[in-house]
Design a protein that fits this description.
Elements (H helix, E strand, L loop, with lengths): L4 H17 L3 E5 L4 E4 L4 E7 L6 E10 L2 E10 L11 H4 L3 E8 L4 E8 L4 E4 L5 E11 L2 H4 L2 E9 L2
């Protein structure tokens, strides 16, 4: 069967578009047929209201080249600049424990970060409202895609 020239061009063009479009995705765990978008950012929000704390933590993660990159942004739930809160001095003496868990609540990884290692974050009006920390750790890609929950704990507070 002879294929007309315009159809060959159309088939080649569609094939190339499909191949180029697939570059943003990759199979991670072929046993479970899980697909993850490359360099997709996951965001988790957590409230901590024990031991006098009143904080909202935003944890952003991204997986690239065998590492999990994260940004933790901690603010006061009521919107008060965190440095002006009654509990900041107590918070500043301890550690935040960031625990990455799967959907069944099994621990996959834990990071312990001294609060004094956080930087001051500013809002659009240059007001110091949050504390921020960026970091990374090694983790297998098959483990990263299992992260379903992030918990924040405290130590030394």
């Amino acid at each position: 069967m002879k294929i007309r020239q315009p159809n060959k061009f159309l088939m080649i063009t569609i094939s190339l578009l499909v191949l180029v479009g697939c570059d943003n995705y990759e199979f991670v765990n072929t046993d479970e047929y899980l697909v993850v978008k490359k360099e997709e950012t996951k965001i988790y929000y957590l409230e901590t209201t024990w031991k006098g704390l009143n904080i909202l933590s935003e944890v952003k993660t991204k997986y690239t080249d065998g590492k999990v990159y994260y940004i933790i942004d901690v603010s006061d739930i009521d919107g008060v600049p965190i440095l002006e809160t009654d509990y900041y001095e107590t918070l500043n003496q301890g550690y935040l424990e960031i625990i990455f868990r799967d959907k069944d609540n099994f621990e996959l990884h834990e990071e312990s970060i001294k609060v004094t290692n956080f930087s001051i974050g500013v809002d659009d009006n240059n007001i110091e409202t949050t504390i921020v920390k960026q970091g990374s750790f090694d983790l297998e890609e098959s483990e990263y895609i299992k992260i379903g929950k992030v918990r924040i704990g405290t130590q030394g507070i």
